[in-house]
Each structure stands twice: as C-alpha cells, then as structure tokens.
Write a structure and sequence with these properties.
Layout: H1 2-29, H2 33-59, H3 70-84, H4 89-107, E1 110-114, E2 117-121, E3 127-131, H5 132-154
Antiparallel strand pairs: 1-2, 2-3
Helix pairs in contact: 1-2, 1-5, 2-3, 2-4, 2-5, 3-4
C-alpha cells in the first residue's frame, strides 16, 4: 500500500506540473511545444491515478488480476471502479483520449507547431490538432478526477 501512496504522490506532482505549465508558463512564453508536454504530463498523471485505484481494489480483493495493457486496465477501471466510485463519464473519455494521443505521438510520422496549435500526423497523413484551449479544458476536467482519487486514497492512510 505504501507503493500506491508514492505513486499517487507522483501522479499529483505530474498533475501540478501540467497545471503550472498551463496557467503560468504557457501564457508567458506562448510556445506551442508546451502543449504536447502538458498533454503528456496530464496523460501520465491520470494513468498513474487509475493504476493506484486498481491496485487498491486488488489489495481489497475486489479485482482478481490487473492486466498489463492499458486497454485492459481501462476496461476494468471503467466497469468496476468507475461504477463503484461514481466517476464522471467525462473522466473516462478523457483518460482514454489522452492515452490515444500518447499512442498517436509515439507512432506519428511527424509533428509540428504552428499558429497556436500543435499538430500530430499519422502515417496516412491524417492530422490531429491540439490547442491551448483544449488542454485547458482537459486539465479542468481532470481536476475532478484527481479530487476523487485523492479522497478515496485518503481513507487508506
């Protein structure tokens, strides 16, 4: 359980970093490359938060086995934890979308920033734009996710 608490602290740190980059750093420097950094911090923080809750549920015997793949972990989280703890559907969609963006970035043939947005291109040259406003909206939505995870894990101590 101590490992879960350390992981939760790491997730909170990544979330705070994303928040700081979004509301303090980006408005000052206006560098679109920060958008992808913010997205990656937020995606990693939410994935760790999900994993912490899955580990807790496993320790309590409510989940038998935690898979390795994100898709499988996400399905268990959605079907078991989200219902049990009343997570918002928006949180689940955001978690899945951020993971999809991470995968897209890993597999993208190229990426660039231009005119206030960051563009990721797939191998077939379909593109996905990320804007500062989109990242701000995602960050605001994720605040509720972290509040819920932290309140659940507070009862562990």
């Amino acid at each position: 359980m101590q490992e879960s608490i350390k992981c939760l602290a790491q997730a909170n740190k990544l979330f705070k970093t994303a928040d700081h980059l979004t509301y303090m750093t980006y408005p000052l420097v206006k560098d679109e490359r920060l958008i992808i950094t913010i997205m990656e911090n937020l995606a990693e923080a939410m994935a760790i938060g999900m994993n912490v809750l899955l580990e807790r549920e496993s320790a309590l015997g409510k989940i038998k086995k935690i898979p390795i793949e994100f898709k499988d972990r996400f399905e268990i989280f959605k079907n078991e934890c989200a219902k049990r703890y009343n997570f918002n559907l928006g949180h689940l969609e955001l978690l899945k979308d951020l993971n999809g963006l991470q995968d897209l970035r890993k597999n993208s043939s190229f990426e660039f920033s231009r005119n206030g947005y960051y563009v990721l291109a797939e191998k077939d040259f379909r593109t996905r734009k990320l804007t500062y406003q989109m990242i701000k909206n995602d960050l605001n939505l994720s605040k509720g996710f972290f509040e819920k995870i932290n309140s659940i894990m507070k009862n562990v101590n």
